[in-house]
Design a protein that fits this description.
With 647 residues, the chain is mainly α. It has 25 helices and 2 strands. It has one domain. α7 crosses α14, α8 packs across α19 and α10 crosses α25.
């Protein structure tokens, strides 16, 4: 058997570097300046898929015309795609856009009315935000003529924030290395995103020719349908008289207190075709039950008075749902870790040098380095949060809640194929509600507000792309250690490019004139919330703990039923995911995919299912292609506001 062609080649790294820089520059420009589809908004990393589509369909052929050795092989494309998906996860919504909003907002938006000058600014460490008021004012209002861009005031805060995010990302990557074998080999999770990406790549030895997938007629039927339907939205933005082909409606229920949205997303119809039947049924059945629950609560007027952060829904009946799902998430993740105890024990023993029959040569890091990196990353995060003002004894509690949340989100994405999943209660609210803002004090609340940069609007985050990357690494040669450095390089380049691009755009045009959500809403969310909690401190929320216990008990029962009843049709993860607001937009597409797949399997069997898969991949690619195409068109024509949903 001939050895596999090398994957970690100079041309693969060069392509990855160039594409990561393009993502780092292009995604902030598209989201903030063009204000079109944010190609780095969701965990399915649209920018990476669009660029892979263009590369495989067009650039491979161009490279082959120049020199038959230039096209990238399958392993090389895996490396490039891995670099792109992790690079996409750190620009705009993933980190850099939220960073500039949060560190520039307090001095600029402080007014006598909001009281930030007394309640917020005195407690923010000087190294966490720029100390030059003029530099911040120019950032929001634009740089005057003949004034050079003030890089220096941003240097110290950005450095310290990069120290924190470096520790967070290190812990993230190492944790995924530790869990890869459990999820991929023992539990055999589906990883729909990785399946689609791998299907787009050429067979080994393809010599740059078109992959087999793109020779399937059904692929192009699905792609054309999705592209045309989504393009109608873009054309309507350019020509007001153009009709849109959008399938969306809402059914009002429970005295108009809740609505049941009926919306067709080709993207989610495609991804949902890959998931297991019990997962799909669990998602849409529990969602419908959630609508009923919310309707009953609204009609009866049952609510919570506790104020939660905007990204947790703010409170009310949504607060009930938030606490309920929090208990379920903790039980779900702890159950999963307990189920993986033999694997985790073997990993720890291997890391500390004991002889164990577990081989880590096919991991991107040895288990010893992974465990050490996880500990180091957590230590960096803990010390940083403590220095900001979080009481030392609360640091491990917060980190536990944080990583439970991120593990749940990642597990949900790789198992359900959802474009994105968000928590109903964000990590800072877990602590604030659980122990009370009075326990945290003013400095502790500032520390919680600072976590909005990376732990609040979790439409996209690094852990899910890393998990998909490690799944895709199965297609690489057995020695996969260089993939770790490819991931690190991609993160560094995308961060640098997006930080520089965002700063230049802000000073050229004024951040307040860019997309308002980033530089009007996001700078004020965390500190309005912190100021309210500081001015009216509260203790632990007893009702919240009670509701959390109910959610934990329900999840425990669902896990027992799944484990002991082979016929049980509802996967427990649906109980948690159903609470997410994203499900309002995609539940019907999941239901439709389940219905179609069930009929295909019943009447055509597995063979029929395999024949129909290209059509559904076409639906996915058509939506990605439409989003990328019209973003480029808007960039050329100067149009703004063409938004194609990525979930």
């Amino acid at each position: 058997m001939s050895p596999s062609p090398p994957a970690f080649t100079a041309k693969a790294f060069l392509a990855g570097v160039l594409l990561c820089i393009a993502i780092g520059v292009g995604t902030p420009y598209g989201a903030l300046m063009i204000q079109g589809t944010d190609m780095a908004l969701t965990a399915n990393t649209p920018a990476a898929f669009f660029l892979l589509f263009v590369w495989v369909l067009f650039l491979q052929a161009v490279l082959r015309l120049i020199n038959r050795r230039l096209p990238l092989g399958r392993g090389e494309l895996i490396v490039v795609f891995v670099m792109m998906i992790v690079g996409t996860a750190v620009t705009t919504r993933g980190f850099t856009g939220m960073l500039f909003a949060t560190i520039s907002g307090p001095p600029y938006y402080a007014t006598p009315e909001n009281g930030w000058a007394e309640q917020i600014l005195p407690y923010i460490p000087s190294w966490m935000i720029p100390q030059d008021d003029r530099a911040i004012r120019y950032f929001y209002e634009g740089l005057p003529a003949n004034v050079s861009l003030p890089w220096l005031p941003w240097g110290e805060p950005i450095f310290w924030w990069l120290v924190f995010i470096g520790g967070f990302y290190l812990a993230t990557i190492c944790l995924m290395v530790v869990l890869r074998r459990q999820w991929v080999e023992h539990e055999r999770l589906i990883y729909p995103l990785a399946q689609v990406a791998l299907a787009m790549m050429p067979e080994e030895g393809g010599d740059g020719r078109l992959p087999a997938l793109f020779k399937k007629a059904l692929l192009w039927v699905g792609l054309a349908l999705s592209f045309i339907a989504n393009s109608s939205t873009a054309l309507r933005n350019h020509f007001y008289f153009f009709p849109t082909l959008e399938w969306a409606s809402t059914i009002s229920l429970f005295r108009d207190s809740v609505g049941l949205g009926i919306r067709l997303s080709f993207l989610m119809l495609g991804f949902s075709y890959f998931i297991q039947a019990n997962v799909a049924v669990g998602l849409w059945v529990f969602y419908l039950l959630r609508v009923v629950e919310m309707g009953v609560l609204e009609v009866l007027g049952i609510t919570v008075t506790e104020r939660l952060a905007p990204f947790s829904g703010g409170g009310g009946t949504i607060g009930i749902l938030g606490h309920q799902t929090t208990g379920a998430v903790v039980v779900f993740i702890c159950w999963g870790l307990w189920s993986a105890r033999l694997h985790l024990k073997a990993v720890v023993q291997k890391a500390f040098g004991r002889q164990r029959p577990i081989d880590d040569t096919d991991e991107i890091l040895s288990y010893r380095l992974a465990v050490a990196g996880l500990v180091l990353g957590l230590a960096v995060m803990g010390v940083w949060l403590w220095r900001v003002g979080l009481p030392l004894w609360i640091v491990p509690v917060f980190l536990f809640g944080t990583f439970v949340t991120f593990l749940y989100l990642t597990r949900a994405i790789v198992e359900t194929g959802l474009a994105t999943v968000t928590p109903r209660l964000i990590p800072c609210d877990l602590v604030i509600s659980g122990i009370g803002s009075s326990t945290l004090g003013a400095k502790g609340m500032i520390a919680m507000a600072s976590t909005f940069v990376w732990g609040a609007d979790l439409l996209i985050f690094l852990m899910a792309p890393v998990a998909n990357s490690l799944k895709m690494s199965e297609g690489l040669p057995r020695r996969r250690r260089p993939l770790f450095w490819a991931i690190v390089l991609a993160v560094v380049l995308s961060l640098a490019a997006s930080l520089a691009t965002t700063m230049v755009m802000a000073y050229d045009h004024g951040a307040a004139n860019l997309y308002s959500q980033y530089f009007v809403s996001f700078p004020q969310y965390p500190f309005d919330y912190a100021a309210a909690k500081i001015s009216t401190p509260s203790g632990p929320d007893g009702l919240g703990w009670f509701l959390t216990g109910i959610g934990a008990a329900v999840m425990g029962l669902l896990l027992i039923l799944q484990r002991n009843l082979l016929w049980w049709p509802l996967h427990p993860i649906g109980f948690i995911v159903a609470a997410d607001w994203v499900m309002d937009n995609i539940w019907f597409s999941i239901f439709l995919a389940w219905l179609i797949k069930s009929c295909v399997l019943k009447y055509s069997g597995p063979r029929g299912y395999r024949k129909t898969v290209p059509f559904f991949i076409g639906l996915i690619l058509g939506q990605f292609a439409a989003a990328g195409f019209w973003l480029v068109v808007d960039g050329i024509t100067g149009a703004k506001g063409t938004w194609i949903p990525m979930y």
